[in-house]
Design a protein that fits this description.
This protein is mainly beta. 11% of the residues lie in helices and 38% in strands. The protein is built from two helices and 23 strands. The strands form six sheets. The protein has a four-stranded antiparallel sheet, with no helix packed on it. A four-stranded antiparallel sheet has the order 5-6-7-8, with no helix packed on it. A four-stranded antiparallel sheet has the order 9-10-11-12, with no helix packed on it.
């Protein structure tokens, strides 16, 4: 007989499975990107409806959202567009003002579709092509201290942003998370959160790994995650073990970011279909900012 815990875990796996299937169906797809002042104004209003990634500057608290219509600064009440219109399906940060992304660019960028791996070193104002242009649409990306990890239907790793190695780990990640501070990468899957300690080259599934929809690495040892139903979990051993924080975000989780140090308090942001939920107490409680 299934226990209540087993039933809940099965339900979470089912939700994550549907989300992963949706991502797989979209991989390699072609998006129609609107352009012009009217389209940009509409994009600003609807920015929270198509969020694919998120970043928060630990010093300034600046909130960046990678969306269907491009990159937005959502720190103020009204989101501000940054740079060209690119459907940023995959998005990861490598440090201050340095971002990696993938997706579907508008014609104004001059980039092929799909964009492959692209990089910005000026906070998203401009983007340069690096590799796999016209070939790969990474819907999941992560950056570590030595590598970039992407999933475009196949799990791939590059140490130089140009040459990619295929990783046969037997997993289909919905979301990838890493940090330039270490070589740890987390991958959310139907089986639970897988871990890599070598920049995505080899993977393990810890015992009792939770089924999470999204994760973020806050420091060398601290990671946070959100379940498909909005419940938040915290790890203080780099994703080996997890504990529920007691906090729950409203709306469908779309992206997550976190800052903090190994021994201090963790701040968490979760972008949802209704706005941004923010916690300053390790995820115990959340306040919501709506557009």
């Amino acid at each position: 007989m299934l226990t209540q815990s087993s039933l809940l875990r099965a339900q979470k796996r089912a939700v994550l499975s549907v989300a992963a299937l949706s991502m797989a169906l979209l991989t390699g797809c072609t998006q129609s990107i609107s352009e012009g002042p009217a389209a940009q104004e509409a994009a600003s209003v609807a920015v929270f409806s198509h969020v694919h990634g998120m970043s928060v500057d630990p010093d300034s608290g600046r909130i960046l959202l990678a969306t269907h219509e491009g990159l937005f600064d959502a720190t103020a009440d009204e989101p501000q567009k940054i740079g060209p219109t690119i459907d940023l399906m995959g998005f990861a940060t490598a440090g201050k003002d340095e971002y990696y992304a993938s997706g579907h660019p508008s014609t104004e960028t001059g980039l092929p579709d799909p964009a492959g791996l692209i990089r910005s070193t000026d906070g998203g104002s401009t983007w340069e092509p690096l590799s796999l242009q016209g070939k790969s649409d990474f819907h999941a990306l992560a950056v570590t201290g030595e590598s970039v990890i992407g999933f475009d239907g196949t799990l791939r790793v590059t140490d130089d942003t140009v040459t990619w190695n295929t990783i046969d780990a037997g997993i289909q990640p919905y979301h990838l998370a890493g940090s330039p501070l270490s070589q740890v990468v987390l991958a959310t899957t139907e089986q639970g959160v897988h871990r890599s300690e070598d920049g995505g080259k080899t993977w393990t599934l810890p015992q009792d790994a939770p089924v999470l929809l999204l994760t973020a690495v806050a420091s060398k040892s601290v990671a946070v995650g959100v379940e498909p139903d909005g419940a938040v979990q915290l790890s203080r051993d780099a994703g080996r073990t997890w504990q529920e924080t007691g906090g729950v975000v409203t709306g469908q989780p779309a992206a997550i970011a976190a800052t903090g140090d190994d021994g201090g308090q963790v701040r968490i942001w979760v972008a949802t279909s209704t706005g941004i939920s923010h916690s300053t107490d390790d995820g115990a409680t959340f306040t919501e900012k709506t557009p």
